Every structure is written in structure tokens, then in C-alpha cells.
């Protein structure tokens, strides 16, 4: 483990070429988040992309051939991030979408804006249900977004535009999956450098379901293949291969969609939980056919069992839509225990999520680089699972937090 307090471009220039196996990082998004200087747009789209491309160019030099990167991006500027990675020489392989239920809408009320510009005073007609009592005084969770009270439009124009806003509630973040070009074939690259592939089996989605059935006529062929350790044989059908995978208890093939349950989820999902929303109204896919018989035993017809609501949090043994995706059972963004004391960083990532991402793209005991270390979420995750880690953070305060969290990571219980 090596931690650097400094500018990532300056620090990376001192590191050895092709010494890194993977990169998992959460760079600035270029939107001046919370007014932070480090998240400014560098003068606009072109300036930001040029700056980010210079960072990713150094990342490319440090990566071994075929090494993968997972680069966080806000949906609003993810095209900037992907363009910068591509301009630096990376191949864009995919985009992983992470769904969560914690986003707070940063929307401006159009009706209020109209009255404000007109100089009209709005009548107070109630208390904002999103406000909370803080020692006898009504407080709002985010004062820049919500008002303490509900007001009525004061002008005809404001009445016309009542209920209109300027932004959607954030519920997804992107991780740009990109790869340094191979030296030749995937096989040759993996054998020489240990990079170039994704760790599919270690990232599969747990399930107790039977993922495939085969006809009795070919069951013996499949069993023979299992006995001989044969996997993905050319003359096996896709269904047969799924049965072979399932027989080893590997689970479903990982997808480019991840879901995090809401903090309020327990025995059942909270109303704002993405997993619960996906599952609403469905249990069986497709519906189960049931034969109706007469009292004398004659066939009467076929009926289909109706879809039923399903909101239980346990997914692994249930055939529901969300069970096809990797789901995390912690807080929407990060729990207080995972954040740890005195961690003031505004965009801390959950450790279990980072562990999953690192495992997906990093060879066992490989070296992970995070040039935008922040409070050390990537490093903490890497150390827990036995990976080597190189982290860079320019802010001295965040660096101290990261240093403490990562040094303590070896004492953490399994979170994944």
C-alpha cells in the first residue's frame, strides 16, 4: 500500500510505467458540486475534457496492457468522462449503472422563480412535509432546495407554472468501464500480463434457483462434461452451459446494472427502494400455467396464475426481476459505520460496492490505483480483500481521513 498527498498528475509522473493492474476511481464531475473548487469545469466542456484526458493518459501509461479502469461519472457529464477516457487512448467497453434511492432533487421551483423576479410576495399556506423539527424550529433537510413552508402562487403567471421544476431526482450513477489496448489476443495478454479479462465467476449474482434444465436425452452428455471438468464446450447449447455453471453454484452472469436497497428496507422494501420498484407487480416470469380439470378428471382448460406483488428483501432464492442484478443491502449511499467518524467528504462511496467493482476488474493480489482517492473508499475496499493499493489525494484533510480508514481496513469485518 502506498498513499500520496499531492496533485495526481505530478505524483503519477513519478510512478513506473505498466506497474498497475486496474484503476477504480471517483473523479470530479465538472459541476462545482457544493461549490467545491476541485469540481469546477475548468472553463467549460472542452477544457474539462482536455484536463481529464491528461489524467487518464497518465493512467494509461501506468496500466499494464489490457488493464481495466472503472471511472465514476455523474449522468449529466458522463459523456465528458467517457470522451476524455477515449481521447486518452482507452477502449470504452461498457457503462455500469448503479441505482440507489437516496438522491435528493436539486430542482428550482419555476413558479417561485417567477414570483421572485416579479417582486410578488407569496402567501404561506402550510408547512413543508419535508421539513423537520430541530429543537423547536422547523428546519429543512437541504435549505437551498426546499423552503420551510408551503406558499401559494402570487401572480397569474406563477399559477400557470405551478408544479414545474428544473431537474429530476438523482437515482443513478455511472462507472465507465474502459480498457487499455491489448498486446494481441486476450489469451496472449492474460498469459503475459495477467490483465485483459473480467473476473466473471467471482462477480456472479448469488442465487439458489435452477438456472437451466436439459432434456433427458442430453443430460448424460452434460454430466460427462461435468465429471471431466469441461466448461463451455462448443457443442453444448447455451442452456446446457447454464446448467454447468449452476451446478458449480456460481450464480447468474454479472450485468452492467447494480442496485442498492434503500436505508429503510427491512423485511420488506421501503417505498423509494429501486429493487422494490423493479419487483412490484411481478413474481413469476412468465406466469405459471395451471391445468383445470373436471371433477371426473377430464381436462377442462388452462389458466395462468396472476402476477402478485412482491416486496421482500431476500432475493437470492426468489425468481423476481431484481434477482437478475447485483443488489447491495446497505444504505443507499453509505452507512454511518462505513463512513466512520470525522469523515467529512461529501461523496463517500460504500465499501461493499467498491469491493465488488475492484474484484470484477482486478487479478488476485493485483495493484489498484485511485488517482482521486478522496476519503479512501477504494483503498479501504482493496485492502480488505488482499489487493495492493496506490492512492493519491491532493487535499491534506481528506488525505488524513483516507490514511486512517485504509490503515484500519484490515480490522474490518467482511462487508461483501
Question: What features would you describe in this structure?
Answer:
- The chain contains 13 helices and 15 strands.
- It is an alpha/beta fold.
- It has a nine-stranded mixed beta sheet, with helices on both faces. It has a two-stranded antiparallel ribbon with strand order 5-8. Strands 6-7 form a two-stranded antiparallel sheet.
- Helix 11 crosses helix 12 (377-384).
- The two termini are 21 Å apart.
- 34% of the residues are buried.
Keywords:
416 residues, Rossmann fold, two-stranded antiparallel ribbon, 13 helices, 15 strands, 28% helix, globular
CATH fold name of the largest domain: Rossmann fold
Q: Helix-strand pattern, N to C?
A: EHEHEHEHEEEEHEHHHEHEEEHHEHEH
Low-pLDDT stretches: 132-146, 213-219, 230-236, 281-290, 303-317, 329-333
The beta-strand count equals 15
CATH C-level label of the largest domain: Alpha Beta
